[in-house]
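Morning run. Coffee first, then this:
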Amino acid sequence: MEKRWITVLLNTLVVAAGFGTMHMLEKFAGIVIDHYGITEAAMGYQQTAYVVGLFVAFLLGGTSLFKGSFKRSVALIISFAAIPQLLIPFMPSWGGVVALRFFQGFIVALIAVFSNQIGRLFVAERPFAKGIILSGIFWGGIYGINLAKWASHNYSDWGAVKVAFLVSAAVMYAVLALWWLFIEDFEIPKEKHSSGSNVWKMPFTWVFGFTFFPALWIIFTLGSFTLHNVKFSDAQVANLVMTLEVSMALWSIIMGYLGYRLSVKNTSNRGLFKAIVSVMTLSYAVTFAGIFIVWKAISANDYRLALIGIAITGIVQGTGPAFWTTAPATYPKKIYPEASFALGLISNSANAVAPNVMFVLVHGVTTGMLIYLSMAILGILLLLASARMKLPVEELGDAA
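And here it is:
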């Protein structure tokens, strides 16, 4: 296999190992509540802290924290997830656990850092490579859930938490060590740029940054809010959530490949951007149809139709591979690493906003579904607006 694609597979393993932390603690909810003597509402604070950490990670991307040596940056990001994973089973207070979960959210910085690497290794193949890497988020979620189940079946009470967390931390560092042996290092630039090339002062950054906002809103709240308001059994809801995870992983790869096939026809900056917009628009359009099917299935209490609808709705993740290849395709080479974090920060503001808004607004399925349908439409409208804009690389030239 070509070395570039081995790099992609190793990156995917790193992402999967890191994102195994995403839902794991929730699977021990009963044990955690008893151990710390907290309420179910307080239990939810840890996931809120994690999601806010995802947002803050991109805020820190504008600093020198994740710049300089690429390999050092990846090791640092993994440590933000692995060290708390080692400490959580031994924390004496619930507040300490919540604080550690916040830092674990920094794992999402891998996505922006790997985007810089993929921008160097590929051109037309960028969406496909990125789609494979992003699928690791959802393979990691599935791995974390199943590791928690295995530990619960083989160990009792808090012992199960200790085993699952310590094993997953060891896996993160083992995968990082394997990755380190095969990956070439490079420098992510630290230098400041003139105001004329400040990504935050470019209208394109703001408009296109928000094109991924609706997708993340759906991805991070559909399973947590709407699906927990349905009348299906707990086992059926668990299957729907797992189906959503698997479908998002597969759609990430499928739509990434479609982005590659469209990109290869025209590898100019504008040609690559047209492919990006096309893939994201199609993903949102099919997402709209999938959500509508899910709504009808839940209303009719039709579990099989709900499974079909969820499998289709997973295409919302098809927006991801295209979005995360935008910076190398549309910004000058010297500033696209900074642009990756800027676009990530804007889009991931959904992580900070969506859970709180959904908590206030969603007390039944209908409200949630109307919000999700609106988000799909908003995504398409923002994409159409961005397609009419001049790209930063067209305004500044590739050497800015």
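The mean pLDDT is 91. Good start to the day.
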